[in-house]
Amino acid sequence: RSPGPAKRLGSSGTPKARTHSPATEMAPPPPAPTPAARLLREYGWDLMLGSIAAFYAVMVPYTKVEESFNVQAMHDILYHNHHIEKYDHLEFPGVVPRTFIGALVIAILSSPAVLIIRVFHVPKIYSLLAVRLVLGCVILTTLRLFRVEVKRKFGRHVEAFFVVLTAIQFHVLFYSTRPLPNILALALVNLAYSFWFKGNYLRTLQALIVAAVVFRCDMILLLGTIGAALLLVFFSNGSHKVLHKHCSFMHWFHGTG
């Protein structure tokens, strides 16, 4: 009785070895991305927007009338420090009193660069440029937080459209380095939108309240619109008790909400 197909031997009397085609072999794993590739993947959009904003700041370094208050305030904080009697606003207070909070924050962040400029006796125009670039970094950092939430909620394609639309619109990146009250409020608005998309409604309201009280009173319109939308969401879900618990004035005031 002849052996079956499974027991047929080769010419040497040993079973034939199985051969594997290249298609059935496991493909090698893809190479690990280089540090430069990881950097571009994580911060490529930010580098593009930052480059455009920096180009605008360098090409148009001087300011307009509406920027004069914050520019003078930053100058006095950086160059006169605690000598408040030398501050320009004591002699020229302006028509409407304005806050120093935004100018103080930007001046503190830009103080290392301005200190180097002062040590080497570089003209003050470069201090103005340093202050504007720091302001642009603050605005673009908050814009990045908003963009990350856009990608998480809607995907990479919507994120790419968001970045391209921001890049081709002149005014967003041009004014991101200009110390206007609107731009200082924009940082808080970007934070509010990122908190809103993240589902942190209490932080959303807090950011908008600070923006309206400190920088722009007309932010109350955006605060009212988003607040009304959040109220509708909470009441439609039967969560008004949760809203009352987490958004009460005392919880917000003591920072325990």
UniProtKB/TrEMBL annotation:
Which Pfam families does the annotation name?
Answer: Glyco_transf_22 (PF03901)
Question: EC?
Answer: 2.4.1.-
GO MF, one annotated term: dol-P-Man:Man(7)GlcNAc(2)-PP-Dol alpha-1,6-mannosyltransferase activity
As for subcellular location, the record says: Endoplasmic reticulum membrane
Query: Which pathway does UniProt place it in?
Result: Protein modification; protein glycosylation
Q: Where is this region: Disordered?
A: 1-32
Give the record's family classification.
Answer: Belongs to the glycosyltransferase 22 family.
Q: What is this protein called?
A: Mannosyltransferase
Q: Give the species this sequence originates from.
A: Aegilops tauschii subsp. strangulata (Goatgrass)
